[in-house]
Design brief:
Layout (H helix, E strand, L loop, with lengths): L21 H9 L3 E6 L5 E7 L7 E5 L13 H4 L4 E5 L16 H15 L6 E6 L1 H10 L6 E7 L23 H15 L9 H13 L4 H7 L1 H5 L6 E7 L9 H11 L4 E5 L6 H4 L1 H14 L3
Parallel strand pairs: 3-4, 3-5, 5-6, 6-7, 7-8
Antiparallel strand pairs: 1-2, 2-4
Helix pairs in contact: 1-6, 3-4, 5-6
């Protein structure tokens, strides 16, 4: 912990193979983006990072998962920016964004997101949303408030479906005052329980991200996901949907057939794909496969 007691102690987080710290790697990726803090309707500000601003490429909006930030997409933003202008949000009350009025209400979050999108996205271009976990839930909700410029929402391991899940161990609540070794160990254990299929794939960047994001989160995204609110809004969604799961996503497997049935009942021709061997955080654990698959799915959508 630093002298001021405001930051977690990251000293036990493994370094990159080239010797850089995870923080340095994150900063390198972030330096390639334009960072913009956009006003929200409640007078707070929402952080966005844009890769490829002004490129004229199609617009792709990324919403991260619960207790996360744009860093959930750290292995995706640069490759995807070869095809798209990438807008990666920090959702209200998470990352570097100010909180919504009610940190337990999905519509409170959604209204702030919609207001910020009205400010930051070009008004003369269509765009696609891709939302991971809690971000998929927000993408589904906000789609009911947006105009025809929104072309599609891709749900990646979406939360908020009121369906069975396998039992797993309880996640440890990480706190800023934990000793460095314990903090890194508990963060790794949480990632093993929820985010990864293969524990060997967990690296220092993932551990650093887990510590940094969860210790500053204010919005209670896990509470909203458990409430099953995406199930409630699904009948109101008119936007085209796509869906991606890791084969062994702990939030879905072995009940993926039930999730597929719910989505196909809503949109029978939904493009729904699985990435072999991956877990919940499929865009990180199987980044190359994800970065190839998402553009293919978006290319198949009607223009």
């Amino acid at each position: 912990m630093n002298v001021a007691g405001l930051m977690p102690d990251f000293s036990a987080v493994p370094r990159m193979p080239d010797g850089r710290t995870a923080a340095e790697h994150i900063a390198d990726i972030e330096s390639l983006a334009e960072a913009v803090r956009v006003p929200m309707p409640n007078n707070g500000r929402m952080m966005w990072h844009i890769w490829g601003a002004g490129s004229g490429k199609p617009l792709l909006v990324l919403f991260h998962g619960g207790y996360g930030s744009w860093i959930h997409w750290i292995r995706n933003v640069v490759p995807l920016s070869q095809r798209y202008t990438v807008y990666a949000a920090d959702l209200p009350g998470l990352g570097d964004s100010d909180p919504p009025d009610d940190v337990r209400d999905v519509w409170s979050v959604t209204r702030e997101v919609k207001g910020a999108m009205d400010q930051i996205l070009p008004r003369d271009q269509r765009y696609d949303i891709c939302g991971f976990s809690f971000g998929g839930m927000i993408g589904g909700h906000v789609s009911t408030l947006l105009d025809e410029r929104l072309r599609s929402v891709t749900l990646v391991g979406p939360g908020g479906l009121r369906l069975p899940r396998q039992q797993r161990g309880e996640l440890t609540r990480l706190s800023r005052d934990m000793p460095a070794e314990r903090l890194a160990a508990e963060a790794r254990r949480n990632l093993e329980l929820l985010m990864f299929a293969d524990p060997a794939a967990i690296d220092g960047v993932a551990i650093h991200m887990q510590i940094m994001n969860t210790t500053r989160a204010r919005t209670k995204s896990r509470w909203m996901s458990k409430a099953g609110v995406l199930s409630d809004v699904l009948p109101k969604i008119r936007t085209r949907l796509c869906a991606i799961w890791g084969e062994f996503d702990v939030t879905a497997w072995p009940y993926t057939d039930q999730r597929e049935a719910v989505l196909r009942a809503h949109q029978p021709d939904i493009d729904l794909q699985y990435i072999a061997g991956a877990g919940h955080w499929v865009a990180y654990e199987a980044a190359d496969a994800f970065n190839a698959l998402l553009p293919q799915m978006l290319d198949r959508l009607p223009t």
